[in-house]
Design a protein that fits this description.
The structure is a single chain. Helix content is 40%, strand content 21%. The chain is built from 12 helices and 18 strands. It has helices at 4-9, 11-21, 27-61, 66-102, 139-145, 151-157, 167-186, 201-207, 232-236, 294-311, 358-363, 388-398; strands at 121-126, 149-150, 164-165, 191-193, 198-200, 225-227, 242-245, 251-260, 279-289, 316-320, 332-340, 345-354, 365-368, 376-377, 379-387, 406-407, 421-422, 428-429. The chain has an 8-stranded mixed beta sheet. The chain has a 3-stranded mixed beta sheet with strand order 7-13-14. It binds one RNA strand of 94 nucleotides through residues 38, 41-42, 44-46, 48-49, 51-52, 54-60, 63, 68-69, 71-76, 78-79, 243, 245, 368, 371-372, 374-375.
Length: 430
RNA sequence: GGAGAGAUGGCCGAGUGGUCGAAGGCGGUCGCCUGCUAAGCGAUUAAGCGGGUACAAGCCUGCUUCGAGGGUUCAAAUCCCUCUCUCUCCGCCA
């Protein structure tokens, strides 16, 4: 959410941001209501002042005095008028809140302008796309051949865009979660969090999923609860409506969660394989930082996510998202894209964003810069560190051998009792 | 699921209709004192939204806020209703 005062004073900046991000919103309606609201506020506050003063006088004079009786009659009318104005204000406030929640964050100055992903800018790459002496298979074929990933039965027991993992496949998923958490907590200074996988509407609003993107989330029928689309939601909301001490910052959290996404509007895209599932695992990195440090914190966060892929020896590149591909809440975002040989392309495996104070204002996350100082909004950041299912896909494809087996990345072998490959029997061997 | 108790400032905790934005304590800050430390003394210390003044820090001022929402009343932390959460006991349960 943007600061109302900022919107009032910089409507053109907001308008430009909306155009750059391709977001619609009733900015003019907001500004008109804002002016109206302040007029009403002045009127009702003057009336309340009168009522408060007279009520005090009644209290002093005694409620049964003649003067008090007269004043009570007067105040009855004043109170009616106040109630009427308060009702109007409530309606305007609610309308303004809805509009304000629909306005996107302002893109950072370094964000390239552009409509879609074609305008994203590659900032660096690591490793070379894997070379094969044979035609590399897609991960869904490898998974089926090794009998470690089962899409047909997932379709039977649940539906499309779900997967069942067996044996070494299940172990690989679990090993990756542990490996990522171990890395971030021991090497990068994050505190591990294991959050609930269901959150309430206030949390979804705090991080920006609601009200605009309700169709993307699974809601539990008959309740106010949503399946988390990412651990970002519960973890960022840990500090909702809190005032943190400046010395506590920065706060780093690393959280594993299953993630649930309805994938509204994604019909027909990535229908095969692990790339786009309704349920997937992810280790998420979340930071609460001082505003002046959020730029460099985004660089560090992105580096922390890259480290995962470097240790797994998976080739990747880092893209700076252009305005049109940036999304609603971030001011700046890097996507890390891993090399997928079968598709002969890079695919997103992590998204690292600086939300500046956009989420913090929605969620009421502040810090006190010093004793007696006014509380200010923190800056929040998060990034995948990294998406587990897509990492499995990348490992299967990049580490596949001509005989159909898949080598296990060196850093994961301790999770496989030292075995170095997954063989056709569906178990690990060495 | 049933019964009961509760939710007050950074924290603890008083407060059953007006003198309450709220006693007291802890913690924080400033000052004094004590030749270190500790203790002691004094002062100060909630947030949001407006208005005024100022280059600004700030100062002055109005309104709102005692879990959330609604109601009664001239007036609500205080009375009534609904909801949420916490605790205790009972039931059920991986």
């Amino acid at each position: 959410m943007l600061d109302l005062k900022f919107v009032r004073e910089n409507p053109e900046i907001v308008r430009q941001a909306m155009a750059l991000k391709g977001e619609a919103g009733d900015l003019d309606g907001l500004l008109a209501r804002d002016a109206k609201r302040r007029d009403l506020l002045k009127e009702v506050e003057a009336l309340k002042q009168t009522r408060n003063r007279v009520s005090r006088e009644i209290g002093k004079a005694g409620a049964d005095s003649d003067a008090s009786r007269l004043q009570k009659d007067e105040m009855r009318e004043v109170s009616t008028r106040i109630k009427d104005l308060d009702d109007q204000l409530r309606l305007i406030d609610a309308a303004m809140e809805m509009i304000l929640l629909s306005l996107p964050n302002i893109p950072d100055a370094v964000v390239p302008h552009g409509k879609d992903e074609s305008a994203n800018v590659e900032v660096r790459s690591w490793g070379e796309p894997s070379k094969f002496t044979f035609t590399p298979l897609a991960h869904w074929d490898i998974g089926a051949n090794l009998d470690i990933i089962d899409f047909p039965r997932a379709g039977k027991i649940t539906g499309s865009r779900f997967a069942v993992y067996y044996g070494a496949g299940a172990r690989l998923e679990r090993a990756l979660i542990s490996f990522m958490l171990d890395l971030h907590t021991t090497e990068h200074g994050y505190r591990e969090v294991f959050p609930p996988f269901l959150v309430n509407a206030a949390s979804m609003t705090g991080t920006g999923q609601l009200p605009k993107f309700a169709d993307d989330a699974f809601r539990v029928e008959g309740t106010d609860l949503y399946l988390v689309p990412t651990a970002e939601v519960p973890v960022t909301n840990l500090h909702r409506d809190e005032i943190l001490e400046a010395e506590q910052l920065p706060i780093y959290y690393a959280a594993y969660s299953a993630c649930f996404r309805a994938e509204a509007g994604a019909h027909g895209r990535d229908t095969r394989g692990l790339i786009r599932q309704h349920q997937f695992n992810k280790v998420e990195l979340v930071k609460f930082v001082l505003p002046e440090t959020s730029d460099e914190e985004l660089e560090k966060l992105t580096g922390d996510a890259e480290k995962v892929l470097q240790l797994l020896e998976l080739p990747y590149r880092v893209m700076l998202m252009c305005s049109g591909d940036l999304g609603f809440a971030p001011a700046k975002k890097y996507d890390i894209e891993v090399w997928l040989p079968a598709a002969d392309t890079y695919r997103e495996i992590s998204s690292c964003s600086n939300f500046t104070d956009f989420q913090a204002r929605r969620a009421g996350i502040r810090y006190r810069p010093g004793v007696g100082k006014k509380a200010l909004f923190v800056h929040t950041l998060n990034g995948s560190g990294v998406a587990v299912g897509r990492t499995v896909a990348a490992i299967l494809e990049n580490y596949q051998q001509e005989d159909g087996s898949v080598m296990i990345p060196k850093v994961l072998r301790s999770y496989f009792h030292g075995h170095d490959r997954i063989t056709v029997s569906g178990s690990e061997s060495g």
